[in-house]
C-alpha cells in the first residue's frame, strides 16, 4: 500500500470525524434540556427561577463538588451522584406525600397493593413534562413542591453540617443561600433526568440514572446500539488484520542499532542540557500525585480521616481529587514538553540560536502555572475568592480542567511557546533536507504537536454560566479527544521517531504504520467521544455514534510496538547490546496497557447497555487508571528515560534500579485494577441494576463489608507504586542529575555533524 494513500486516508478521516462530531452537536443544539425561567406551583406561586439554577451551578463548580461527586454520572465516582441521589429522594418524598394524603400513614407502613398504587402515581407525575416552552414556565405538582422542601433540607444538612459518611466537612458550601441554590440546581438535574422529552417516552438523559422506583429503565435503543457496537468491532478488527497482513506492515529486515548505540554517547546542546530540569519537576509532580492517590484510596474506606484528622481537614476529598487529576496532566504534559525539547535538535540536525533562553523562559512559566493553579484550587474550594474570581483564579469546577481560567490561558500560551521552540529546531527538516520519508515523518510529528495544543483550546468554548450540557460537550473535546485520539496521534508520532532514531524500524515502515494508526484513532477517538454524551442531556443520536465508533478503540496502537519488539529480538539474537532497553520496555508496557486498559476495559464499558448501569461506577475508574496511567504514564516514563539516557554520562547509568521501578509501576497498577477497582466496579453494576445508581453510590454500599475489605487492600498496590515505582526512579534521577553531560553544541551548530551520524537516510 502506497504511503501517500495512507497519508490522505488519515487527512480524510480527521476531517470527516470532526465534521461528524461538530455537525451532530450543531444539529441537536435546540434539543438541550431547558433552564426554566420560573418554577411554579399549580397555584402559580414562584418557587425558584432560572437565575437560582445558574447560581446553584456556579456553587457546584466553585466548591469543586464535581470532584466530590457527580451530576449525570460525570465527575468524581467515590461520592454520591448528586442527580441520582436527588431524584431518588424526590421519589421517596412524593411517595410519603401521597401516603399521608390518601391513607394518613407513612409509605413504609402501607400494604403491597397501596404501595404499588402510589408508586404508579409518582412515576406518572415524575415522567409527565409540565414545562411550557412558550413562556419558560415549569409547573410542579403539589407532591413535587413538597419534595423540593425535603431536598433543600437534605442538602442544607449535608453541605452545611457535613456528612462524614460521604467525606463532607462542615460548611463544605459556606453560605446558607448558596446551599439553597445548589439544592435547586440538583433538583433541576433530577428533573432533567426523569421527565420525558416532549413527544418522547424517555427523559432528556435517555432515562439515566437507572432507578426503577421512579420509572427510569433503559429504552430499546440502548439494546439496539449495543449490538451495533459489537458488530462494528468485529468488522473493523477483521478489516484491520486483513490490511496489516495483505500489505506487510510487520515485515522487513531488521535494522542496525548503530544509531541507537551512538545516540547515548552523543554530545548534547545547550537547550538539551536545559531540558534536564523539566524531568526533575516531572518526578516531583509524579510523586505528589501518587501520594494524593493514596490519600484518596484511604478516603474510600474512611472518608473524613487519614490517620491524622488534621490532614483530612486540610486536604478534603474534593481538593485531593482535584490535585490528583491536575498533577497527572501536568507531569505527563511536562514529560512530553521536555522530551520534545531534547529531541528537537536531534531530529532537526542543529541547535537554533538562543534556543536555550526560550527553554529557560518556558520552564519558569510552567512552574508559575503549576504552582499558581494548585494554590488557586485550594483557595477556590475554600470559598476565599470574592465574586466571579473563583472561576478565573480558583477552581473552574470541571473535572480534568479544574484550573482557573487565567491559569488555563497561561498554560495555553505556554503550549504555544513550546510549539515555537520545537518548530525552530525542526523547520529545516519539515520543508527541506534529508530524505522524502524522513521529512514526511518530521511533518507528521509536527502536525501531531500542533493538534495537542489546538485541542486544548476547545476548553475555552465554554464559560462561567454556560449550559451544563454545552459545557460538558466542549469539555470532552479536550478530555476524551485528547486522550483517545490526539494523544494517541502524538504518541504514535513520537514513538515512530523514537524507534527510528534507535534503529529498530526503518523510516518508511514507521511512517506507514503511523498513518494507518492515525486513520483509526481519528475515526474511533473523535467520533467515539459520543459515548460520553449518552446520558448528558443530549438526544439518542449519540447512542448510535458512540456505540459504533467507540468499539473501534481497542484496535490501533499495537502495530508499531509489535514491529519494534520483533526488531529488538532480532538484535538480541545477534548478540548486540541495547542501551535503551528499559525505555523500550516501558514503551512495550504502554502498548500492553493500551490494549488492556484503553481497549478491553474501554470496550467493556462503552456498549450502551453496559454503560447504562456502569456509568458513574468504579468500572470507569478502572478504565481511567489503566488507560491514563497505564498508557500515557508508561509512555511518558519511557520518553523521560529515553531523553535521560542521552543526557547522563554512561558510567552513571543503572539498569538495575530501572528494572525495580518498572515492575513496581506495572505490578502495582495490575494489583490496583484486579484487587480493588475492577471488583468494586462489578459490585456497583450489580446494585445499579437491582436498585439504581443512587444505591451503588451510597454510603451504605461503601460501608459494606466486602467493599471495606477491598478498599483496605488498595493500600498494597498504592505502596508498591509509590515505594517500588516512583521513589527508586526519583532517587535515580536526582543522583544522576549531578552527572548530566556538559553541553558541547552551541548556538547555530550542527548536531549531526558533531555526532558524525545522519538519521535522515531511508
Describe it for me?
With 762 residues, the chain is mainly alpha-helical. The protein has two domains: 42-219, Cytochrome Bc1 Complex, Chain D, domain 2 (Orthogonal Bundle), CATH 1.10.760; 249-742, Cytochrome C Oxidase, Chain A, CATH 1.20.210. It is built from 28 helices and eight strands. It has helices at residues 3-27, 50-62, 82-103, 112-127, 142-161, 176-194, 220-246, 258-263, 270-301, 309-314, 317-348, 355-381, 389-393, 405-431, 436-456, 468-501, 507-527, 541-550, 558-573, 581-606, 608-614, 618-647, 655-690, 693-696, 699-702, 705-713, 715-737, 751-755, and strands spanning 38-41, 46-49, 70-71, 74-75, 131-132, 137-140, 395-398, 401-403. The strands form three sheets. Strands 2-1-6-5 form a four-stranded mixed β-sheet. The chain has a two-stranded antiparallel sheet with strand order 3-4. Strands 7-8 form a two-stranded antiparallel sheet. β7 (395-398) and β8 (401-403) form a beta hairpin. The longest helix has 36 residues, at 655-690. The radius of gyration is 27 Å and the shape is globular.
Amino acid at each position: 500500500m502506497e504511503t501517500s494513500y495512507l497519508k490522505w486516508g488519515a487527512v480524510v478521516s480527521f476531517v470527516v470525524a470532526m465534521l461528524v462530531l461538530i455537525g451532530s452537536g450543531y444539529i441537536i443544539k435546540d434539543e438541550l434540556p431547558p433552564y426554566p425561567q420560573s418554577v411554579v406551583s399549580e397555584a402559580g406561586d414562584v418557587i425558584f427561577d432560572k437565575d437560582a439554577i445558574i447560581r446553584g451551578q456556579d456553587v457546584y463548580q466553585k466548591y469543586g463538588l464535581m470532584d466530590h461527586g457527580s451530576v449525570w454520572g460525570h465527575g468524581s465516582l467515590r461520592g454520591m451522584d448528586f442527580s441520582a441521589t436527588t431524584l431518588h429522594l424526590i421519589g421517596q418524598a412524593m411517595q410519603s406525600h401521597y401516603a399521608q394524603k390518601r391513607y394518613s400513614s407513612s409509605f413504609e407502613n402501607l400494604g403491597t397493593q397501596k404501595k404499588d398504587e402510589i408508586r404508579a402515581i409518582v412515576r406518572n407525575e415524575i415522567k409527565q413534562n409540565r414545562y411550557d416552552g412558550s413562556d419558560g414556565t415549569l409547573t410542579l405538582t403539589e407532591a413535587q413542591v413538597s419534595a423540593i422542601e425535603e431536598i433543600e433540607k437534605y442538602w442544607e444538612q449535608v453541605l452545611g453540617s457535613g456528612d462524614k459518611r460521604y467525606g463532607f466537612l462542615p460548611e463544605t458550601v459556606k453560605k446558607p443561600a448558596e446551599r439553597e441554590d445548589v439544592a435547586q440546581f440538583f433538583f433541576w438535574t433530577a428533573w432533567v433526568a426523569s421527565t420525558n422529552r416532549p413527544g418522547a417516552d424517555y427523559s432528556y438523559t435517555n432515562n439515566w440514572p437507572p432507578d426503577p422506583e421512579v420509572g427510569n429503565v433503559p429504552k430499546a435503543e440502548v439494546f439496539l446500539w449495543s449490538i451495533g457496537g459489537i458488530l462494528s468491532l468485529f468488522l473493523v478488527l477483521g478489516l484491520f488484520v486483513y490490511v496489516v497482513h495483505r500489505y506487510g506492515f510487520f515485515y522487513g529486515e531488521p535494522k542496525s542499532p548503530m544509531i541507537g548505540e551512538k545516540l547515548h554517547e552523543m554530545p548534547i546542546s545547550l537547550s538539551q542540557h536545559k531540558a534536564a530540569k523539566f524531568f526533575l519537576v516531572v518526578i516531583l509532580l509524579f510523586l505528589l500525585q501518587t501520594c494524593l492517590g493514596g490519600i484518596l484510596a484511604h478516603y474510600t474506606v474512611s472518608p473524613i480521616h487519614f490517620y491524622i484528622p488534621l490532614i483530612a481537614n486540610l486536604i478534603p476529598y474534593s481538593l485531593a481529587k482535584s490535585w490528583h487529576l491536575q498533577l497527572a496532566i501536568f507531569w505527563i504534559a511536562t514529560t512530553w514538553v521536555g522530551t520534545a525539547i531534547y529531541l528537537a535538535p536531534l531530529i532537526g540536525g542543529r541547535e537554533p540560536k538562543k534556543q536555550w533562553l526560550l527553554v529557560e523562559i518556558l520552564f519558569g512559566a510552567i512552574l508559575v502555572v503549576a504552582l499558581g493553579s494548585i494554590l488557586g484550587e485550594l483557595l477556590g474550594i475554600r470559598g476565599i475568592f470574592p465574586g466571579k474570581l473563583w472561576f478565573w483564579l480558583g477552581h473552574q469546577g470541571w473535572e480534568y480542567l479544574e484550573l482557573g481560567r487565567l491559569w488555563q490561558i497561561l498554560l495555553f500560551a505556554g503550549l504555544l511557546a513550546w510549539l515555537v521552540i520545537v518548530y525552530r529546531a525542526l523547520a529545516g527538516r519539515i520543508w527541506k533536507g534529508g530524505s522524502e520519508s524522513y521529512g514526511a515523518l518530521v511533518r507528521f510529528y509536527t502536525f501531531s504537536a500542533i493538534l495537542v495544543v489546538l485541542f486544548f483550546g476547545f476548553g475555552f468554548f465554554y464559560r462561567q454560566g454556560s449550559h451544563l450540557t454545552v459545557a460538558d460537550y466542549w469539555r470532552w473535546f479536550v478530555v476524551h479527544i485528547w486522550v483517545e485520539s490526539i494523544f494517541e496521534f502524538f504518541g504514535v508520532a513520537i514513538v515512530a521517531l523514537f524507534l527510528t532514531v534507535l534503529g529498530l524500524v526503518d523510516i518508511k515502515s514507521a511512517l506507514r504504520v503511523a498513518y494507518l494508526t492515525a486513520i483509526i484513532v481519528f475515526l474511533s477517538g473523535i467520533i467515539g467521544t459520543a459515548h460520553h454524551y449518552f446520558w448528558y442531556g443530549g438526544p439518542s443520536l449519540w447512542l448510535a455514534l458512540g456505540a459504533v465508533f467507540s468499539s473501534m478503540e481497542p484496535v490501533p496502537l499495537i502495530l508499531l510496538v509489535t514491529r519494534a519488539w520483533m526488531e529488538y529480538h532480532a538484535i538480541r539474537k545477534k548478540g548486540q547490546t541495547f542501551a535503551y532497553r528499559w525505555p523500550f520496555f516501558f514503551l512495550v508496557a504502554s502498548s500492553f496497557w493500551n490494549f488492556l486498559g484503553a481497549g478491553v476495559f474501554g470496550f467493556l464499558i462503552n456498549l450502551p447497555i453496559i454503560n447504562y448501569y456502569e456509568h458513574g461506577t468504579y468500572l470507569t475508574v478502572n478504565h481511567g487508571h489503566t488507560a491514563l496511567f497505564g498508557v500515557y504514564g508508561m509512555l511518558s516514563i519511557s520518553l523521560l528515560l529515553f531523553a535521560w539516557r542521552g543526557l547522563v554520562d554512561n558510567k552513571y547509568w543503572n539498569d538495575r534500579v530501572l528494572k525495580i521501578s518498572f515492575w513496581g509501576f506495572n505490578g502495582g497498577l495490575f494489583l490496583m485494577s484486579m484487587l480493588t477497582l475492577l471488583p468494586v466496579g462489578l459490585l456497583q453494576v450489580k446494585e445499579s441494576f437491582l436498585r439504581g445508581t443512587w444505591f451503588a453510590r451510597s454510603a451504605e454500599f461503601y460501608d459494606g463489608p466486602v467493599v471495606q475489605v477491598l478498599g483496605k487492600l488498595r493500600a498494597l498496590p498504592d505502596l508498591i507504586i509509590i515505594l517500588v515505582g516512583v521513589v527508586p526512579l526519583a532517587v535515580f534521577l536526582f543522583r544522576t542529575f549531578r552527572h548530566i553531560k556538559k553541553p558541547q553544541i552551541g548556538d547555530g551548530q550542527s548536531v549531526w555533524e558533531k555526532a558524525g551520524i545522519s538519521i535522515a537516510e531511508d
